[in-house]
Amino acid sequence: MNMRKFDIAIIGGGPAGASAAMLLSGRGYSVALVEKKTFPREVLCGEFISREVTEFLKSNLLFNDFLNLGANPIKSFRLIGSNGENVFSPLNFLAYGIRRSKFDSLLLMKAREKGTEIFQPAEVIDLKIEGDRHLIKVKLVPDNEFTIDAKIIIAAYGKQSILDKQTGRGFHSVKSGLNGIKYHIDKSMFNSFNPEEIILFNGRDIYLGLNGVDENKVTLCYLEKRNPLHQLPKERLLSLRTENRQFAKMLKDDFFNYIEKLPVYGTGNIYFGRRDIVRDGIFYIGDSAGVIAPLVGDGIGMAIQSAMTLSNILLRNNLEMGISAIEYKEGWKKLFLRRIYIARFIQKSMLNSSFRKTGIKIISAIPGALPMIINYTRG
Questions:
Q1: Which of 30, 126, 210, 368 has its CA 20 to 30 A from that of 113?
Q2: Where are the beta strands (DSSP E) in 213-324?
Q3: 75 touches 211 (CB < 8 A)
Q4: CA dist 212 to 57, 218, 219, 234, 378, Å?
């Protein structure tokens, strides 16, 4: 059998997996990272980089490299309801927008520089536990198969994976009816767009965010309750244009002809409920551990914070599984549970036709409400 032995194996090379790999490799542990896709690649994401992430980048001497990618500064947030309500708040911290293809590639490159061995594109096709070791069968594209023998497994593969079914995580069969869609759109397709501002538009069974990213692009990302009458993203955006006049005013006349030529990045059946943080000897970080509602919270921030939390615990305990599992469960809940519940409440409210109208009016009437909500969904 073709066997490779490591201290730690990480499944997934996004911000969570790459950050954990970088931190653990940098402290002398042998780390294997298995990533299914070839980078650079895009994924569904609002592409918002908050203060939690910039602090991590600065502390690991990556901030200048990040700025060199052309990240777009973001300073404020605006919520626009379907009845014309317009609520504004400064963020009170400097955030950024950056395409995931660039950001993820930067982190993975830094993990490799720290000594992580990266297998890409490669897919985990089997997991087994033998005593205190984990055996991960990996298939490298196109045909090469081998086994990684590791003391610690970290799952960082995102919102959902076939591995969830294999490891018995029950949510894989839940039908949420929630879909997410992302486009990258040239800024010239919008009227008077302010790249330093996130704008959130609301409509029936949908909310949609716009924020500037690098190279004069705008990330358009929305979450919807799946409606069988809207089979295509373009049709859903046409409906929102009708429902929200302020959204309609932002779009150039040829906007919908333009987006027909663009790639669409999406994920169906997004599950926002509880997930295992540790299960059968596997540590879960990032979206694998818990998905925060897009356009409400900061998934990239949670990914990196969870990677930092777990890495610090493993380093402190010299990779001892039992005590690390207990500490990680407690640490994760303390950091994220309240934020996830608040974001989930906001998400459900924004997708509830009657409640969202009342809620936006209340937020409009209370000057400090929106800054407080922003603060409660941050780390």
A1: 126
A2: 217-225, 265-267, 278-279, 282-284
A3: no
A4: 20, 4, 6, 20, 20
3-43+100-174+273-347 folds as FAD/NAD(P)-binding domain (3.50.50)
Q: Which pLDDT belongs to residue 371?
A: 65
Return all residues near 331 (Cβ < 8 A) that are at least 6 apart: 309, 313
User: Hey, what are 116's tokens?
Assistant: 């992580």
Evaluate the omega torsion of the peptide bond into residue 121 and state whether it is cis, within 30 degrees of 0: yes
Q: Give the start-end residues of each E strand in the chain.
A: 3-11, 31-34, 48-49, 72-80, 86-97, 117-119, 122-130, 133-140, 144-155, 178-186, 197-203, 206-212, 217-225, 265-267, 278-279, 282-284
According to DSSP, the β-strands at 86-97 and 48-49 are antiparallel
Is 257 exposed, middle or buried, given 0-12, 13-18 or 19+ CB atoms closer than 10 A? exposed
Pairwise CA distance, residues 226 & 205, whole Å: 8
Mean pLDDT of 152-158: 93
Q: Token pair of 37, please? A: 């896709």
Task: Give CA separation, 126 vs 133, 134, 139, 169, 187, in Å.
Answer: 14, 11, 10, 15, 44
| Pair 276, 284: CB distance under 8 Å | yes
Average pLDDT over residues 221-234: 81
| Least confident segment among 161-170, 184-193, 207-216 | 161-170
CA–CA separation, 207 and 222 (whole Å): 6
Contact present, 94 and 197 (Cβ < 8 Å): no
Band of residue 268 on the pLDDT scale cut at 50, 70, 90: confident
Tens digits of residue pLDDT in 47-105:
999 999 999 999 999 999 999 999 999 999 988 888 878 888 888 889 999 999 999 99
Among the listed residues 246, 240, 256, 252, the one whose alpha carbon sits nearest the alpha carbon of residue 207: 240
Tokens (6 digits) for 200: 């959130």
* Beta carbons of 293 and 203 less than 8 angstroms apart: no
